[in-house]
Specification:
binds uracil, 44% helix, 16 helices
Length: 433
């Protein structure tokens, strides 16, 4: 393969053959193709996009750059969910065990938080002792014995994505719909799943804020899934307000446990039941999403989902006593209250300010190798739309002896909007398949 011919074809808006895509990515992962040629190709893709066939081949080549899991020996269908993430999105934590409790196997490979968004792995690691470093054999054993495993991307899983993502990060090429879609889908498809539900967020706290861009990403990911023969559906859901009330690792685990006990915030439960119902429907366990949602609600209410979660925590080395005893979870003594700065109804301006506030307290990551403090966090005390009086407590801030507190309070002041009552956007905008 002549790498320059590949670059000039894409530079001029042409279409790449399957062979050209496969050998270029193979060469890049092996080191035969240098970063400067790969970044030139990524830039050309950013500008010209990719045709559906090119994108399916590109994603397949990424996926096949490393280990691909296959859990064919299980007597259960495999299904997973991916969310584009946001503020307080802990849905995976109650969702995965609830779906497993209803009879599907969920091999969930998740990510860490970066920038304003949190990551499922960091949240799970707030549980003392819990390890998310799972190899393929660990996934296989946990799925066989419990039906769910939640781990991180190993070095062997989609190495092409690790290299390409790092390169996109330093060359300003993250925000490209085909490159995001192939990055997400290659990792999810490497889990060897038969069904996938996509939760694509919109709003100021989302990765892509505009509804239209989110729909474009959802369409692109659904097309790839269809090309590779995985059943998939996507929902666009609101991230113009936090999901639930808790933001920060320990607080989000506690809120997830409330949901797993049949309680917790209504929006979190609604989303878990909807996405879980769709997963059961795609897996062929429920006749449709509505029947699946009822099954998930029952598993949350009768304790089966919590039991599966506790077994998973134990199998991944976590302290199961911490699930019933909050004093065993990471904690910090500092408490401050952010008060409503005016009277009126609560809405949110730039929701990312909440993510930046968490980062200022030490609970978020500015760089990939930063440590996160699991104990710090925010608890929103009043629901979006609530009528507030000036000076009333609005957000409880958990901090470590005031570290980062001034910056966090400034971010909160910028994120909150108080004014006349406005019509809230629906939690779920629509379904695509
Ligand atoms: N998340 C991913 O996994 N990849 C991207 O490119 C963007 C977000």
């Amino acid at each position: 393969m002549d790498a320059r011919a590949v670059l000039t074809t894409k530079r001029d808006g042409g279409e790449l053959s399957d062979a050209a895509i496969e050998s270029f990515l193979e060469g890049y992962v092996s080191g035969a193709i240098p970063d400067y040629q790969a970044s030139a190709l990524l830039m050309a893709i950013y500008v010209h996009g990719m045709r559906p066939r090119e994108l399916a081949t590109w994603t397949r080549a990424m996926l096949n750059s490393g280990e691909v899991y296959a859990f064919g020996e299980l007597d259960k269908p495999t299904v997973d969910k991916h969310s584009t993430g946001g503020i307080g999105d802990k849905a995976s934590i109650p969702l995965a065990p609830a779906v497993a409790a209803c009879g599907a196997a969920v091999p969930m490979v998740s990510g860490r938080g970066l920038g304003h968004t949190g990551g499922t792995l960091d949240k799970l690691e707030a549980i003392p002792g819990l390890s998310t470093a799972l190899a393929r054999e660990d996934f296989a054993r946990l799925l066989r014995e419990i039906g769910v495993a939640m781990g991180g991307q190993t070095a062997a899983l989609v190495p092409a994505d690790r290299k390409l993502y790092a390169l996109r990060d330093v060359t300003g090429l993250i925000e490209s719909v085909p490159l995001i879609a192939s990055s997400i889908l290659s990792k999810k498809l490497a889990e060897g799943i038969g069904g996938l539900v996509l939760d694509v967020k919109f709003g100021s706290g989302a990765f892509l804020c505009e509804v239209e861009r989110g729909a474009e990403l959802a369409r692109c990911m659904l097309d790839i899934a269809s090309e590779v023969g995985v059943r998939a559906a996507a929902y666009q859901t609101a991230m113009d307000r936090p999901l639930g009330c808790a933001i920060g690792h320990t607080l989000e685990i506690e809120e997830s446990l409330d949901c797993l006990r049949g309680g917790g915030p209504a929006d979190l439960r609604e989303l878990v039941c909807l996405l879980g119902g769709e997963m059961l429907s795609l897996a062929g366990i429920a006749s449709d999403t509505s029947a699946g949602s009822s099954a998930i609600a029952a598993a949350l209410d009768d304790g089966r989902a919590l039991e599966v979660f506790a077994r998973m925590v134990a199998a991944q080395g976590g302290d199961t006593k911490a699930l019933d005893d909050a004093s065993r979870m990471p904690s910090c003594a500092g408490r401050s209250v952010f008060e409503a700065p005016a009277s009126g109804h609560l809405s949110w301006g730039d929701l990312r300010g909440l993510g930046r506030a968490l980062t200022a307290l030490g609970g978020g990551r500015r760089a990939l190798d930063d440590e996160v403090d699991h104990a710090v966090g925010l608890r929103v005390l009043r629901p979006t739309g609530a009528e507030l009086r000036a000076g009333e407590p609005l957000i409880e801030v958990h901090h470590r002896a005031g570290a980062g507190l001034d910056e966090a309070l400034r971010e909160l002041a910028g994120a909150i909007h108080i004014g006349p009552l406005s019509q809230p956007t629906p939690l779920v905008l629509g379904r695509m398949e």
